[in-house]
Structures
1.
Amino acid sequence: MSNHIPARLAAAALSLALLSTSALAEVKERTLKFGYSTFEAHPLGQGANKFVELVGQKSGGKIKMKVYPATQLGSETQTISATQGGVQDIVGTSTAPLAGLVKEYAIFDFPFLFANEKEADAVVDGPVGQTLLAKLSEKNLAGLCFFENGFRNITNSKRPISKGEDVAGLKIRTMQNPVYLESFKTLGANAVPMPWPEVYTALESGAIDAQENPYGIISVNKLNEVQKYISVTKHAYSPWAVIMSKKLWDGLSEEERTIFVSSCNEAKDFQRKFSRAEDAKIVADLKSKGMMINELAPEEVSRIKTTLQPVIDKYTATVGEDLVKQAQASIASVH
């Protein structure tokens, strides 16, 4: 049996509804652990619940998953490691920590790679996304699909950011990720890598001024209590990978694999739709709670991207020019 998720299986899986009785005989009773770092109320948590529900339905109730949201099983890095070791069955994670395992995942950290969700979908659901999911098998993981964390925006307690120079001097928390660190340093910020659970307190105490995340994360973590300004920079887009332990994947029947892949793809469509509908509500809610929200002019975004081009060029060499060209071709295909 192949250790990769075959493309034909993924395609067949999309149209799969419920398995026949004979196929269900190939499904074992299982109770699995699914851990991730966001709150259950977040669109990612809702997507995770949908995935669990679909797997339950398609397996005739034989496969149950217990979810552990809000870092109950550890940070993203810890839960990825536990899933590699087969201690945890399934992990949901942003792609930034995966770049430490599979260097090509750093493509998602490129500043201003995508202008909108349509471009992002074309890349994560196209050849680039499939290549990246398949690459996880070299690291004792099996990639199932990508949910959406969304476009990242900067919040801070000092001033609105309307041009690149406004970032200079801000102490900004970023993920432990070389592309993010270098991008913010290039703009003159003091980039501070910090585990997520420490961020709220650091913002509250003034140890840092700023952080960057999609709207959903800003909202469920109540960052409006410790941050005054949101600047809609959309400087990066974060996919969220749903990944299984390869040890578990290797032991599954073809029927069971089909259940997981098809359920992930159905849940992905539900989750992205939900996430995008929530964004507009969240913006209105954060405004009502006193946050000042400003957009960046398109020409200013172009100017910042030009400033960051040396970072993009440097990491294109790491990620591989072919993969970057493939992503650019997928982006061009939706225009």
2.
Amino acid sequence: MLINRANIENAFTGFKVSFDKGFGSAQSTYEKVAMIVPSSASSEIYRWLGQIPKMREWLGDRILNNLEAHSFSIENRKFENTIRVRREDFEDDQYGILSPLFQELGQAAAEHPNELVYDLLKSGFTTKCYDGQYFFDPDHATLDENGNVISVANTDGGSGEPWFLLDGSRAIKPIIFQDRIKPRLTRLDQENDENVFFRDEYIYGVRARSNAGFGLWQLAWGSKRPLDNSRYAAARASMMSLRGDNGRLLGVKPTVLVVGPSLEEAARELIMSQTRANGASNPWHDSLDLLVTPWLG
């Protein structure tokens, strides 16, 4: 191929088509467990964390909920992915070889939020959230109906492969995905660009800004104990009986079980099988959705 501006432009147009194809074909599931928040600054402050609004009987003056009680900031991070294309590849018309590479570049960009969200979920046993406790912790503080501070757990501990019950039915979700700048394909392919002049290569890259942070721990249960009927039942019961400040029932109901590849068989047997090994009916059949993700592997 003759190297001129028109042909370079045509090549980039083709690369972008491949990039967009890969981006659109990626399998993303993070939206099921994370609330997507558009960001317009270097960081965002979430003052409403800790609040699950509940109606109350109006007796006397209104009771004002204090949005400053729990403040949590998520700072955006910057990410990139860059590839180099030799000038000889253009001269020798190697588009068939290069197109899959740009398609993979697009798929990686689209899948990146999965990595952020599920990596954060895995770290919840050792990473603090807005109340100063680990996201999955046996000692989250709340108030009982008499105003006394009590401890509430959203984990039963363990040391094995993690599994998670999440309530993804609400506007607020257990995880926050903060989206500042969406992935975009850019280039250095001008004849006077340093990389072209000195190294005879064209550079293409993706840039994005985003981050993930913890939302409401009340909507999540994390366990590293074996995934079986008794522990699943106990986790569901604990989530559904959870009460907020002043003893108000929160109405939490798990909607999705999240596991990695190593627990897929146990999870499918637990909630997708209609009968148990002894032939009895399975009370947990179709009790929620199953999400198996490689990002927990």
3.
Amino acid sequence: MISASVGYQCPECVKGGSGTGHAPTANRPRTLAGGSVAADPRLVTKVILALNVALFIAVRARGDALLDDLLLFGRARTELFGPVEGVAEGQWYRLFSSMFLHQEIWHILMNMLGLWFLGPPLEAALGRLRFVGLYLLSGLGGGALTYLIAAPEQPSLGASGAIFGLFGATAVLMRRLRYDMRPILVLLGINLVFTFTWSNIAWEAHVGGLVAGALLAYAMVHAPRERRQLVQYAAFGGMLLVIVVMCVIRTAQLT
């Protein structure tokens, strides 16, 4: 069923409204957040999953050399007598590349399971473009908070920040649709317990991604219909600005 201005319509009814076999612009089906309805609501999720798996295979093939080039850390030497590297040295791409980077098999399995479980429903509810923005900014938000708080030489990698962003967005979406929130809250609670009790977990990435994802999702699904795009653009732009400001502040501290 497709959301209409009043109630819901079946796809055939919407297509039949134009007489040409295509829905008129006014009746074109939209997602809850105002995005276009896609034939395959899992396409972006599949692409992101494939990128993570491909980079994981590349890491297994090339070893530490590729990890040193792509993982997130503030400022350190990757070799004993090598140059000082890191985000503070201008390598801001590490905030992005580390989101798709995994070293251990259990790490990528857990994250990709979360992506496959949470991704398709959100992609269908938000639309592809908004889902991509949510995923990337959640991951960048987690990376920026890690960069801001963690020790400069502490390495961080993985899609966990983005996955926690999907957790936050799912909770917001379920509340908006008035679904039973207990399953997602229990699952989120279990993951937060692991976050703060297991060693070698960058809790900053999890918390940063969770907050970013929840805030962006709230802006997308609660924006007034008449000003929806403006509110959504402002939310994404504001989140990106916060991420940049955190990175600028930390870079000034380290340099």
